[in-house]
Amino acid sequence: MRILIIEDDVNLNRQLAEALKEAGYVVDQAYDGEEGHYLGDAEPYDAIILDIGLPEMDGITALERWRADGKTMPVLILTARDRWSDKVAGIDAGADDYVAKPFHVQEVLARIRALIRRAAGHASSEIVCGPVRLDTKGSKATVGGVALKLTSHEFRLLSYLMHHMGQVVSRTELVEHMYDQDFDRDSNTIEVFIGRLRKKIGNDLIETVRGLGYRMQAPGNGH
Fold first, then answer.
1. Distance between CA atoms of 208 and 223, rounded to whole angstroms?
2. Which Pfam families does the record cross-reference, listed alphabetically (predicted)?
3. How many CB atoms lie within 10 A of CB 112?
4. pLDDT tens for each residue of 37-89
5. What ranges do the domains of the chain cover?
6. What CATH class has 126-216?
7. Domain 2-119 has CATH 3.40.50.2300
């Protein structure tokens, strides 16, 4: 899962990035509205954290432009404490949720988790596929009730596949959502991670769809 943070307060941007990385997300950072708008336009994010009062281009303008261009990724806006008008403007421009400053980083994390789940059609913080359970709140996974020992890459891969259960996900899409913009991307490594995951959760949960990619679903669910 890949997140973009657009916040001109360098310390706050860093705090959010550190907390999200610790929770297992891949994070890109921007410090003004123009750079942020460009990244949101050019890269596929699972969610964006957007400050409203930004230099170069304000957050509302960036958000309106994304929505006008048909971009549908969930956006969480950060607003000043007393400015209820900012919240209204943000929601009207297409924001999915908001948090008023000052806030606890854990609250932002909880709201991001909920937005990503909702965008993928999951209501609960736990996603289940056969014997595998993904706890999005604790960034943990179990198989048959036993905790899975996963590397950060394996966890991101499992998380993305489970959020998109039943859908065919291409290698390119997996690469785009598992690595940040500076990472040297190689789609062949995805095969290696898929192989490792299958060893840990069982071969029958992740299907290879020839020429298209991979699909995760519980056996017997049909296609």
1. 13
2. Response_reg, Trans_reg_C
3. 26
4. 999 999 999 999 999 999 999 999 999 999 999 999 999 999 987 778 889 99
5. 2-119, 126-216
6. mainly alpha
7. yes
